[in-house]
Specification:
The structure is a single chain. The protein contains 4 helices and 9 strands. By secondary structure, the chain is an alpha+beta fold. It has a 5-stranded antiparallel beta sheet with strand order 5-8-7-6-9. The chain has a two-stranded antiparallel ribbon with strand order 1-2. Strand 6 (156-161) and strand 7 form a beta hairpin. The protein is elongated and about 105 Å long.
Length: 218
C-alpha cells in the first residue's frame, strides 16, 4: 500500500457531523454582507448630511449623529468579520479532531499484523497495526575506529547473504557513520542501506565487504 492509505478509523459519526456544521457556519457570510451594506449606507448618509450642513440645511447635531451611525456600522462590520474568522478557526479545529480519529500509513509498505479488532478500546499508546517497508533493507555492523575513519556516507559496499541463496547485493551504500563509538569494545557501528527490488525478507544475515579506500571486510 502507499503512504497515506487509511488503515483504521474510530467511530467518527458525531465528529463528522461537527465538521459539517462548522463548514456550514463558515459558508454563511450573510452577517458580513449585511454589515458591509450598512457601512455603505451610513457612509452615503454621512456625506448627504455634511453636504446639507454646508448648505445650511442640517445642523451640527445632525452631522454628529450621522458620524456616529457610520462609525458604529464600521465597528459592527469588524465584529462580523471577527466572528466569521472564529468560525473558520473552529472548523479547522473540528477537522483536526476528525483527522486524529484516523490512522493513515506513514510510509508505503505492507501490514503484517493487526493488533486490535473493531470495538476494542485503544489509546494513544496502543499499538494497533504493524506496518513494514522492505523496499530498502538496513544493516548495522561494527568496525574498528581505524576503519570507520576512512569511510564516508555514500561509499559503496557489497553484501553477501548468508541465510538464503541470493546473489550478492552490490549496490548498497553507507548512510550513517556515528560520531561516537562504543569504548568498551572499541568499535563504531556503521549503517548501510540496500535496495531490495526482489522483496527479500528482513532479518537476514550477511557479510559486508567495504569497497572504499582503507576499508576491509566487515
Amino acid at each position: 500500500m502507499e503512504a497515506g492509505t487509511l488503515l483504521l478509523r474510530l467511530d467518527d459519526r458525531v465528529q463528522r457531523a461537527n465538521v459539517a456544521l462548522a463548514e456550514s457556519q463558515v459558508s454563511d457570510t450573510s452577517a458580513v454582507d449585511l454589515a458591509e451594506l450598512q457601512v455603505e449606507f451610513e457612509e452615503g448618509e454621512l456625506q448627504i448630511t455634511r453636504d446639507s450642513a454646508r448648505q445650511g440645511g442640517a445642523n451640527a447635531q445632525d452631522v454628529r449623529e450621522a458620524e456616529f451611525a457610520y462609525n458604529r456600522s464600521v465597528v459592527q462590520l469588524r465584529a462580523a468579520e471577527l466572528e466569521l474568522e472564529q468560525r473558520r478557526l473552529s472548523m479547522e479545529r473540528e477537522a483536526a479532531r476528525l483527522a486524529e480519529m484516523m490512522i493513515r500509513a506513514p510510509i508505503g509498505g505492507d501490514v503484517i499484523e493487526v493488533h486490535k479488532k473493531a470495538g476494542e478500546t485503544v489509546d494513544e499508546l496502543t499499538t494497533v497495526v504493524t506496518l513494514v517497508d522492505t523496499s530498502m533493507l538496513e544493516i548495522d555492523f561494527p568496525v574498528p575506529p581505524s576503519v570507520s575513519a576512512g569511510l564516508s556516507v555514500g561509499d559503496a559496499v557489497s553484501v553477501h547473504w548468508q541465510d538464503i541463496e541470493a546473489p550478492p547485493a552490490e549496490d548498497a551504500r553507507i548512510v550513517f557513520i556515528p560520531p561516537t563509538g562504543d569504548a568498551t569494545v572499541r568499535e563504531v557501528t556503521i549503517r548501510i542501506e540496500i535496495p531490495n527490488p526482489d522483496g527479500l525478507p528482513s532479518g537476514l544475515h550477511g557479510r559486508v565487504r567495504l569497497r572504499s579506500p582503507g576499508g576491509g571486510a566487515g
